[in-house]
Structures are given as structure tokens and as C-alpha cells.
Design brief:
The chain folds into 2 domains: 151 residues, Rossmann fold (3-Layer(aba) Sandwich); 135 residues, Dihydrodipicolinate Reductase, domain 2 (2-Layer Sandwich), CATH 3.30.360. It is 31% helix and 30% strand.
Length: 324
């Protein structure tokens, strides 16, 4: 079977990793590294054995698939061009800046029979993959995602930059309607919120407390899930998992040390596999999501995560129409 011809648009920090992984995968043929900065495009092209390009439109007739890793505001206009030509598209999270833009991309993907996948890479974290089958009835979820400050990603607030990863996982675990969202956030180094906390209550009584910061001294990515019969603690950085269960009147503890994998490599391999299988994006609403958090993030699911993230952002900034 011939490898899939693919390009990467935007080869900054994250996009260059996409290019490197595609160059390593036998199922992919990396055609081009595209960036509006010629030096960056040339550097990635030289390193990964493809050609440099500064105008993504020149790739439209030459590739079967594309990864888009430009700043958020560029996701919609670039993805629109590729999807309109039936080119399978993986766009980094968040899917777009607004829900309306996400809906337009979903319509284009359906109309042109193209796969639209979104880079919610934590779905492929080895810690989550190891215990996903045990996460059946979350009642309380506590999440901390903290990172030192870095200039990249600051074209949006920390909710769309970091917390959206956890929103996406949360919606896949608690498959129920959201009843209430409360949120606070603080601007520190950027025009947007750099620290944020959201409390999400679901119609079935489940509650989630999410905290994200991009100005912390040390990185932390921890997900703690309390169920009726167990407590699961996942450290996404170390891939360590602790499971506590109530069994025969006592508490048992199982500590799992999980070999580290490269989640992005698993994500891109899944994208290519989905193209070969021509599996269409699931056209479901949040209330009916049936795919586990291990699967690739479809455009529809990413749209729902975006809608929740924008709601949190509106609550933080006290505006009605942010990112509609």
C-alpha cells in the first residue's frame, strides 16, 4: 500500500514535531514543510527530507492529508481550503476560534468526504490508555494542569491553550448534559487569563474541578477521578497511575508504572489509519458521545470541547459573545 502524501502547515515548535514524526512513519510520505517564515520552512525541510514551502495553497493539489499547526486564528481559513478539496485534515486544538467556524469545518468535511481530526493529544497519553476501561462512573474529578510560562500559545487564554485538553477528556468520561459551569480566572502576563479554575456540574450529579495555569514554577498534569467503588490518580507527565479500591471492607492500592510513549506519534498514526479505513467523523452531540477517550478526537467532539471552553472564557471575562 502506498504511503499517504502529507504536509505540515506551520513548523514552529509543535509543527516541527509533526514533521519529524511523519518522516519516521512508513505509512506517510512527508511532501512539504510549510511556514510563512522561509528560514523555518527551510530548516524543517532540510532536517526531515522534504521540500520547503511558504504558501500552503501550493500544496492543495499535491497532498492527500495535512497537519495544521499554526496559531489558533489561522486554523479555520487554512483548514477550510484543504477540506474544500477533500483533503484529510488534522488541525491542532482548539479546532477553531469560534463555534460557528467549527460548524463550517464540520459541514465541509461531510460535504467533501474528508476526515477532520483535532489534536487533542492527551487522548493518547499512555496513563489514560491504560486505565480507560476502568473509568465507568466518575462522580468527582479533580484536574491540575500547570506549566511554566512560554510565549507560544499566548494568542489565546489558558483555557483554550491548556484547559481544553482536560475539558475534552472530561466530556468523554462523563457522558451527560452539563447543568452548570462556574469559573474564575486572572490575567498576569498576557491580555488573557493565565490562571483559571472551572467547576462543572453535570445533570447526573457528577462534578469536575479543573485548574490550569501557564505561569507556574513547575509543570504538573494530574487527573484524579473518584468513582463509587474506586479512586484513580493519573500523572500524565510521569505516566504513573495509582488505583485505590474498596474491597471486602478494606482499601486496596495498586500502583502502575507505565512505559512512556510518544502520544503525538500515536495520534498521527491513528490519523493515517483512519484515512486508510475511510472512517467518517462521528456526527454526534456531546450527550451521545460513545467513543472512548482513546480514540482520535473527531471534529464534532472537538467542537463540543470548544463550546465549553468558550463558555468558561465568557464567564471569566464577563462577556456574552466571546467566541460565538
Amino acid at each position: 500500500m502506498n504511503p499517504i502524501k502529507v504536509a505540515v502547515v506551520g513548523v514552529g515548535h509543535l509543527g516541527s514535531i509533526h514533521a519529524r514524526i511523519y518522516s519516521e512513519l512508513e505509512s506517510a510520505q512527508l511532501v512539504a514543510a510549510c511556514d510563512t517564515q522561509p528560514d523555518r520552512a527551510q530548516a524543517a525541510a532540510s532536517q526531515y527530507g522534504c521540500r520547503p514551502e511558504t504558501d500552503f495553497r501550493k500544496l492543495l493539489a499535491q497532498v492527500e492529508a495535512v497537519s495544521i499547526a499554526v496559531p489558533t486564528q489561522g486554523h479555520f481559513p487554512i483548514a477550510k481550503e484543504f477540506l474544500s478539496r477533500g483533503i484529510h485534515t488534522l488541525v491542532e486544538k482548539p479546532i477553531t476560534s469560534t463555534v460557528r467556524e467549527a460548524d463550517q469545518l464540520l459541514r465541509l468535511a461531510r460535504r467533501h468526504r474528508a476526515l477532520l481530526q483535532v489534536g487533542h493529544v492527551e487522548r493518547f497519553n499512555s496513563a489514560l490508555r491504560r486505565v480507560a476501561d476502568s473509568l465507568k462512573d466518575p462522580r468527582f474529578i479533580e484536574v491540575h494542569r500547570l506549566a511554566p510560562f512560554q510565549p507560544r500559545g499566548t494568542e489565546v487564554g489558558v483555557v483554550l491553550d491548556l484547559m481544553i485538553h482536560d475539558i475534552d477528556i472530561l466530556l468523554g468520561l462523563v457522558r451527560n448534559r452539563i447543568r452548570r459551569i462556574e469559573a474564575v480566572g486572572v490575567k498576569v502576563l498576557t491580555p488573557f487569563e493565565d490562571i483559571a479554575n472551572a467547576r462543572i456540574t453535570f445533570a447526573n450529579g457528577a462534578v469536575a474541578n479543573l485548574t490550569s495555569s501557564r505561569i507556574s514554577k513547575e509543570a504538573m498534569r494530574k487527573f484524579r477521578i473518584f468513582q463509587t467503588d474506586s479512586y484513580v490518580s493519573m500523572d500524565f507527565l510521569s505516566s504513573a497511575v495509582d488505583i485505590f479500591r474498596h474491597q471486602e471492607g478494606r482499601i486496596s492500592h495498586e500502583a502502575l508504572t507505565i512505559p512512556k510513549e510518544e502520544p503525538l506519534k500515536a495520534e498521527l498514526a491513528s490519523f493515517l489509519d483512519a484515512i486508510r479505513g475511510r472512517r467518517p467523523p462521528a456526527v454526534t452531540g456531546r450527550e451521545a458521545v460513545v467513543r472512548p477517550p482513546l480514540a482520535e478526537a473527531t471534529g464534532r467532539e472537538a467542537r463540543e470541547a470548544l463550546a465549553v471552553a468558550l463558555k468558561i472564557t465568557r464567564l471569566i471575562h464577563g462577556v456574552r459573545h466571546y467566541g460565538v
